[in-house]
Amino acid sequence: MLARKPKLHVDEAVLKTCTGPMPKHVGIIMDGNGRWAKGRGMPRIKGHHEGANAVRRTVESCRYLEIPHLTLYAFSSQNWGRPQDEVTGLMTLFDVYIKKERQRLIDNGVAMRMIGDRSRLSPGLLRAVEGLEDATAHNSDLILQVAVSYGGREEILSAVKAIAKEISDGTLRAEDIDEHTVSDHLYTRNIPDPELIIRTSGEFRVSNFLLWQAAYAEFFVTDTMWPDFNEVHLRDALNSFGSRERRFGLTSAQLSETSEEE
Ligand code: IPE
Ligand code: IPE
Ligand code: MG
């Protein structure tokens, strides 16, 4: 079969200035939609709508750069506590995004998976999400995880409950639990941990995002509000990542010894 040529509307000139090495998994806390809108005298929902364009730009840029995994934090477990009209507006926006982006995601070889508590979504939205997951399941060029109704603590809690149940059912022994057991019970099972986490809007906090998986992630915070996030900001984050020494608890000298041995 001939390889599909993806249709990527990205600023190639900017993305070509990424110097590498590239992370295998990028997570993004897409923050600042409300402030973007407020600064323009618009309702908050307008910021969320504009944010959807930044999502498309970012997905296609990662696809262009051949980054294999991208996780976008779209709606947290705690965001359910926002005013009802904002919550409804955001859920409608997800539904619209799924319908509008479907063909583009398929054509570009992107597999979309939702991570988060599905039981809180309306039946209609859940059907739309599962429809898109099924339609893109065979794609493998970019795995796009969208975190909706997602909380890191909630995710760990549900893993703990599932593990406890296996122990009480007699299918798992407590002494056999290791890090892999926990990882394998998270929504992100089979996906490598994020190596780079970007947060927009200048906030230096993790807000319940990928708590277990981010153990050794590099962080990059930009003051840019999410709707304005583009190829330049992504390039800057990736180049910052590429220039860092990731030591994983070891010393610089140990790391250079290992790389000399290779
Ligand atoms: C991020 O933008 C999107 C969601 C959390 C749903 P915000 O809506 O948090 O925007 P700010 O932080 O209020 O500006
Ligand atoms: C984090 O943003 C959640 C998402 C981007 C979906 P929030 O705006 O909810 O985070 P806080 O309230 O500033 O910590
Ligand atoms: Mg926010």
Helical amount among residues, as a percent range?
A: 40-55%
Helix/strand/pairing class, anyone?
A: alpha/beta
- Low-confidence runs: none
CATH class of the domain at 24-151 and 196-241: Alpha Beta
Shape: globular
Distance between the termini: 37 Å
Q: What share of residues are in beta strands?
A: 5-15%
Q: Give the integer mean of the pLDDT values.
A: 96
Going by CATH, the homologous superfamily of the domain at 24-151 and 196-241 would be Decaprenyl diphosphate synthase-like
What is the H/E string? HEHHEHEHEHHEEHH
Question: DSSP helix count?
Answer: 9
CATH topology category name of the domain at 24-151 and 196-241: Undecaprenyl pyrophosphate synthetase
The ligands bound in this entry are: 3-methylbut-3-enyl trihydrogen diphosphate, magnesium ion
* Number of beta strands: 6
Do you know the CATH architecture of the domain at 24-151 and 196-241? 3-Layer(aba) Sandwich
Subunit structure: Homodimer.
Enzyme class: transferase
InterPro entries: UPP_synth-like, UPP_synth-like_CS, UPP_synth-like_sf
GO molecular function, one term: ditrans,polycis-polyprenyl diphosphate synthase [(2E,6E)-farnesyl diphosphate specific] activity
